[in-house]
Structure to design on (460 residues):
């Protein structure tokens, strides 16, 4: 018998991301028979099992410190106390009282999660929590949870000790389920799931998944979402939560093939348009690196690290010119393009060309001149690394781009590119795409893209 499951991980304030994924599950008609969750995933999982999407969306769109922590609610009427002063009260609770009290949030969730309704639903709901002090994992489905204690166990699963207070149920004390299994795929498998959507927003290690025949689709963001640790309380805002919801929606659409992209989101089938830039990228790459085994250790290191850069994407390097697409997305990331937008290939190209032109117009001869001087002296890569590491990635992208736009590259200039590729391969690969974009954009002439490499050399 086919059974569909949704698994939500723990992840604190990043829980809005799971609501964005849920939106896409609704769009494609993915209705789960089984839902398992840990920590905030146990909360969102209960709402998913109840089908309360609108209520969950409203909760996460409006979440904030002021409506989450007891210390803010208790002192809200004291106009003389600032938000910063009340934040200090949060840290005092962590140190002196064994964690903060999020009763206001739990109160709202308790109103949304109707225990009797959940028990009578057709969805098999389970959660994970952890005992204290033994830190023993406790995996519970509804039939194992005593009547009237569902809320207690959901909140026990979400008690992110030591930031939040532990939860006592009867004679036992519980803390966050993430200490036991932050992404309870195994629970869903043991319940007979044959198709699983697993949404991971946490940083905790995921428990090893046993061999199985199920189809498992993992959905997660390629870059860190808004932080939720105690040092970043100011990021626990509705603004961050709404952005996470949007990111979850985009990543889920990519996971189900409704959008293209890895870091960024593109309209469907836009990835095939990278073929127009593949030839230029390949030609420029061959101008920098040898066709045969190099005798230069610097070049060998550069080739190795560029290969490692592409390997991190975990895709077939020959599929749909994916290397070109990854170069494009990395350039967009260095230039700071918004990751919550949906792009066409042409739109992103235009933005990158515009950003590249502005970058090439800047005078960066002084900081880059020092780097060039060290490279020309033949100093070790380790010594050069300390200089390059202090430079802005956009500056290094621009430096590589200036060189790649030249018609011919002498060995000296190749060595500069090898050094950057060996230390920050993402900057070289990004410049490779930007160079291709400029050379293939007929509306921009070569004279529109001045470099200042000559000026840098003049300072040596």
């Amino acid at each position: 018998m086919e059974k569909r499951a949704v698994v939500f991980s723990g992840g604190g304030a990043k829980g809005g991301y799971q609501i964005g994924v849920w939106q896409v599950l609704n769009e494609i008609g993915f209705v789960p028979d089984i839902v398992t969750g840990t920590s905030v995933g146990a909360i969102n999982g209960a709402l998913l099992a109840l089908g309360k999407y609108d209520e969950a969306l409203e909760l996460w769109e409006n979440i904030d410190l002021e409506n989450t922590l007891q210390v803010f609610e208790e002192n809200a009427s004291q106009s003389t106390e600032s938000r910063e002063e009340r934040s200090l009260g949060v840290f005092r609770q962590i140190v002196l009282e064994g964690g903060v009290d999020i009763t206001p949030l739990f109160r709202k969730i308790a109103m949304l999660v109707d225990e009797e309704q959940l028990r009578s639903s057709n969805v098999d709901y389970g959660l994970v929590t952890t005992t204290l002090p033994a830190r023993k994992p406790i995996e519970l489905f509804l039939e194992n949870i005593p009547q009237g204690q569902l809320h207690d166990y959901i909140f026990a699963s979400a008690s992110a000790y030591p930031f939040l207070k532990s939860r006592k149920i009867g004679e036992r004390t519980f803390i966050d389920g993430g200490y036991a299994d932050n992404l309870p795929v195994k629970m869903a498998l043991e319940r007979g799931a044959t198709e699983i959507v697993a949404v991971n927003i946490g940083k905790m290690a995921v428990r090893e998944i046993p061999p199985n025949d199920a189809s498992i689709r993992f959905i997660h963001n390629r870059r860190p979402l808004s932080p939720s640790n105690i040092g970043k309380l100011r990021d626990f805002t509705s603004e961050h939560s709404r952005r996470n919801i949007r990111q979850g929606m985009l990543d889920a659409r990519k996971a189900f093939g409704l959008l293209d992209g890895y870091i960024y989101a593109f309209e469907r089938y836009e990835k095939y348009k990278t073929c127009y830039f593949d030839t230029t990228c390949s030609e420029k790459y061959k101008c920098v690196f040898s066709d045969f085994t190099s005798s230069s250790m610097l070049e060998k290191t550069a080739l190795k690290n560029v290969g490692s850069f592409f390997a991190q994407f975990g895709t077939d390097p020959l599929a749909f010119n994916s290397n070109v697409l990854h170069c494009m997305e990395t350039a967009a990331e260095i230039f700071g393009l918004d990751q919550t937008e949906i792009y066409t290939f042409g739109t992103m190209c235009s933005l990158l060309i515009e950003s590249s032109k502005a970058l090439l117009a800047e005078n960066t001869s002084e900081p880059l001149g020092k780097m060039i001087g060290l490279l020309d002296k033949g100093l070790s890569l380790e010594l050069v690394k300390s200089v390059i590491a202090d430079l802005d990635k956009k500056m290094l992208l621009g430096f590589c781009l200036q060189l790649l736009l030249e018609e011919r590259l002498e060995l000296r200039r190749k060595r500069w590119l090898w050094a950057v590729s060996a230390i920050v391969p993402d900057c070289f690969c990004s410049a490779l795409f930007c160079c291709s974009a400029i050379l293939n954009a007929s509306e921009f002439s070569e004279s529109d893209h001045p470099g200042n490499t000559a000026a840098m050399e003049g300072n040596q």
Notes: The radius of gyration is 26 Å. Strands lie at 4-8, 34-38, 124-132, 137-141, 167-169, 172-175, 195-199, 215-219, 265-266, 342-343. Residues 50 and 121 are 7 Å apart (CA to CA).
